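>> Question from a student workshop board

For tomorrow's exercise we were told to take the sequence and the ligand below, predict the bound structure, and bring the output to class. My setup keeps failing. Could a helper post the expected result so I can at least see what it should look like? The ligand is flavin-adenine dinucleotide.
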Amino acid sequence: MRTQVAIIGAGPAGMFLAHLLARDGIDAIVLERHDREYVEGRVRAGVLEQVTVDLLHGLGLADRLDEQGLVHGGTNLSLDGELFHIDMEGLTDGRTVTVYGQQEVMHDLFEAADERGVRIVWNAREVTIEGADGTAPTVRWREQTGDQYEVRCDFVVGCDGQHGVSRKSIPASVQREFERIYPFGWLGILAEVPPVEDELIYANHERGFALASMRSPTRSRYYIQCDIDEKLEDWSDERFWDELCLRLGPEVGARVVRGPSFEKSIAPLRSFVAEPMRWNRLFLAGDAAHIVPPTGAKGMNLAVSDVAILAEAFVEHYTENSDAGIDNYSSRALARVWKAVRFSWWFTSITHRYPDMDGFDRRMQMAELEYIRGSLPAQRTLAENYVGLPLE
Ligand SMILES: Cc1cc2nc3c(=O)[nH]c(=O)nc-3n(C[C@H](O)[C@H](O)[C@H](O)COP(=O)(O)OP(=O)(O)OC[C@H]3O[C@@H](n4cnc5c(N)ncnc54)[C@H](O)[C@@H]3O)c2cc1C
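>> Workshop helper replied:
Here is what the output should look like for this input. Compare the format with yours to find the bug.
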């Protein structure tokens, strides 16, 4: 088998890339370790930046997004129960974010795959990459039948998340890794209840961070900061709702509609970047190259902007005979990645309770939030990062 671009992983990065390449007539194949049900079923991101929304429109895949997505022109911060609003739309010349679950995005990308000639191999196990430092890489995999297959290609793109095979295929001597582990996690639930507020609330409370988010007008997504070694079984729904309401403060807490959760999980928080994002004919995109804590909702959006940059580079290579985009991919993508890493690290640092925080640190957080509340330039800085920096 032969193709132009072999893509490993059918998450947001892999599927956006496959659609962008198919649109421009570049042949590609996507190799995914799991089946469609598994990938589509993962409850993850829910806030799309303008760049991601624009790309879905550009691909003609935004019908359901336009119908069901909740466009948010602002967001709320809360300090010890006192709420204040940031008018993102007014502060960023009309830019917004859209609440639309990652599961819905994946559904739209998978549904359109066949008719657009996007080839996906499900349950591709034991994927290996060979020859990425030469001119003709080969990717091999085993299917459920046990049979082994291979595809020869011009380029390999690792869109296989944090634990995939692609980043590990790059020699350690050419890669540098940067990491920050946060000393807490997020305990999150999904419940079929109306959200407490039309827009998100990021709450800093002396008991810890809380986030009031949603997936639709009838489905809420709530998170509270928890210890890293917290056990899910210790968190009954009742205990979760009580703690959430405390952290959102008496006014908001009293308005929270409670109900049984149908998903509950704990996610660790981490910032991670691997540089460079290219080694010869092997490229990394999305979580394969970087991770951000979910504060600020950047992970999936970064995956999408990486592959938007990369798709442009491949189009230049195949249609204009120029490798300038390919050669610039890593530095161009990393420039955007580091800004998002900074924003999510900063937003985490002003909203969460750290175990070693003393009175001084707490006063610094309060002063920073008070400053944002009273300063339009500070709000503008937050807003332009939150809605997503433009693709440069
Ligand atoms: C609780 C939570 C909340 C989040 N909230 C947000 C949010 O609000 N906004 C936001 O932007 N981001 C959010 N994120 C982050 C976002 O979900 C990820 O950044 C995004 O999924 C990254 O996409 P990706 O395609 O790079 O990687 P992934 O989604 O991890 O996809 C990688 C794919 O590769 C496959 N794979 C792995 N290894 C192999 C292999 N060896 N061979 C073949 N296939 C392989 C995997 O099965 C997977 O399907 C959240 C994440 C979590 C966990």
